[in-house]
Amino acid sequence: MVLTSTSIPALALALAVTCAAPLVAAPSAARPWTQGPEQPSPRQEAARGGFEFLELSLADAVSRAENQKKLLVIFWTSPSVPECQRMRESTFRDRDLVAWGAANALAVEIDAGTDAGLAARYRVRSFPCVDLYDPVLGLAAERLEGYSSADDLLASFSGALLGGGPVPKPEGERSEDPYAWLAYGNWMARGSDLDANEAARAYAWVLQNADQYRPGFRTRYFEFLMRRLAYMKPRSREALAVMERERNRLEGRIANGDPDPRAVHELVRIDWWTRRTHKTRETFTALAGRGGSAESARALLFRHVIDELGRNQDFGPLLAGLGERSAVEYLVERFAAIDANLARQAAGEPLPEHTLDTRADAVLAGTWIYEGLLAAGRGKDAADLVDLIAKESPTGRAFALLVERAQRQGLDKLALEIGQRGLELLAGQPGERQLRRVLSRIPGWVEDGK
Question: What are phi and psi of 394, to 5 degrees?
Fold first, then answer.
C-alpha cells in the first residue's frame, strides 16, 4: 500500500466549514480508538452489514458533508480491479470501521467505469483509492492508494485528523510514537498562534524522527505535513522555519552527492507549498557543471523546472537540461515512462508519488522546449518536436500553446501555420474552439468562411 496526500482545491474549498464535528482521538499503541457505538446501528445493519455508501453524486455528497459538518470518505473503484470488490467484502464490513463511519463521516463510492472523467479530474491514479476530507481545515486529509485493510484506514484516519478532545504532549513510551506526535500536533493546530508554533514543532519531530520508529512514516505523511505547515504559515513563524530547515537539509543532501529521487521530490514539494518555485530553479542552476552526482540530481530536477525556466525565457539552461538527447528523444522517453506507469496502475499497482507524471505536463514541457529551440534558431529541431506532439497529443491545448510560443518569439506566420495544422486535426472536436480563440488574437488571421 502506498499513501499520498493530494490537494484538490475545488473539493477542499467546498469542505471549508467553520465548525468542527467531533473527530477521531489520538490512537492507542494498538488499534486506533474509535468514536461511536460498540455495535453497528440498525441503519448500518440495513446497509448490508457494512459501511454505508450514500447514493449521491460527489457534488451532493460534498454539500451534505458541509451541512452536517462531517468528514467525507470517497471510495474510488474500477470494475476491472478485483481489489475493489475485495475491499467491499472485507475492509468495509469491519465492525469498528463501520461504527467509526456512522459516528464521524459520510461516504460515497465513485465508479470510474461509469465516471472516468471525474476520477481523472481529481487525479485518481490507481484503484482502489480512498480519500478523506477534513472540514475542520478545509483540506484533503488523507489518500490511500491500493488495497487497504480496516486497520490501515483507521490508523491513517486517526493519525491525520484532529482529536475530538485535548491530546497531551507525548511523554514516556509515547514520546517515540509518531502517531502520538502527529495527533498532538493536529490538536495544537486548532489553538492560538502560540499553540500553532507548538504544532509546527510537533510536525518537525515527525519529519526528523518518525522513520526511526516506523519506517516509511515520513514518506507516507510528508504531503499532509507540508499542507498543514503551509496552512499555519500566516499565524506561525515556526511553521515556515520548519519548512525552510527541511528544505536546506534536503538541498545539502542533494548537493553533497545523494541525488535520491525521493529527496528531490520532497524539495520540489516544499518549494511548491511555500510558493517559492524559483528556488527549485536556483538549485538546478547551482548544480550545473559540477559533474557526477550533481548531474544526476539535475536530471531528476529537470522536469520540475522546465515551466519555471520557460516562463522566465531562460532557454539556455532549459536546452542544456536535455543533455545529449534531442528534444524529440526527451519527449519520447517521457511519454513512454508515463504510458508504462499507466499500464502498471491499470493492473492495480500503486506507484510512488515521485515517479508519477502526466501527458498534459509532458506536453506543456514540450511547448517550452519548442520555444527554446525557436529562440536558439534551431528551426528543424523545433519542427520535429511539433510533428511528435501532433502525433502523440493532438489537442486544442497543445496546439494553442505551440501557437502562443511561436507568437511570443515574434513568428506570427509560423504561429498561423501551426494553428492551421491544428485546426485540420481537430475539426469538430472540443479543442477546436480553444485553438480558434488563440488564433483570433494574431494579426493576419482570417476566420474560415469570412
Answer: -80, 75
In DSSP notation, 343-407 reads HHHHTT----GGG---HHHHHHHHHHHHHHHHHTT-HHHHHHHHHHHHHH---HHHHHHHHHHHH
Considering Cα of 117, then 123, then 128, then 133, what sign does the dihedral take? negative
Pick from 216, 232, 246: which is nearest to 162 by CA? Answer: 232
Is residue 333 within a helix (H) or strand (E), and if so which, with residue range?
Answer: helix 327-346
Rounded distance between C-alpha atoms, residue 237 and residue 235, angstroms = 7
Q: Is residue 281 in some structural domain?
A: no
Closest by Cα among 121, 176, 147, 165 to 6: 121
CATH of the domain at 136: 3.40.30.10
pTM of the model: 0.68
Give, to the nearest 10 degrees, the angle between helix 327-346 and helix 359-375. Answer: 180
Inter-residue contact 184 to 170 (CB < 8 Å): yes
Last residue of a domain, one of 165, 187, 203: 165
Domain count, the chain: 2
Structure confidence by residue, pLDDT tens digits, 289-332: 887 888 888 899 999 999 999 999 999 999 999 989 999 999 99
- Helices 277-286 and 292-311 meet at what angle, rounded to 10? 140
Domain that holds residue 387: 322-439
Nearest to 37 by CA among 90, 92, 100: 100
What confidence tens digit (pLDDT) does each residue in 142-165 have?
A: 788 888 888 778 766 765 554 455
What sections of 42-146 are H helices per DSSP? 42-46, 58-68, 82-89, 95-104, 116-121
Q: Mark which of 137, 165, 193 sits at the end of a domain.
A: 165
Model confidence at 442: pLDDT above 50: yes
- Helix pair angle (379-392, 359-375), 10° resolution: 160
Query: What's the burial of 227, exposed, middle or buried (CB within 10 Å: 0-12/13-18/19+)?
Result: buried
C-alpha cell at 98: 463501520
For the four alpha carbons of 320, 323, 329 and 332, in that order, the dihedral sign comes to negative
pLDDT at 158: 61
Inside any domain, residue 283:
no
Q: Is residue 160 part of a domain?
A: yes
Residue 85 lies in a domain: yes
How far is C-alpha 8 from the geometric centre of its chain's CA atoms?
8
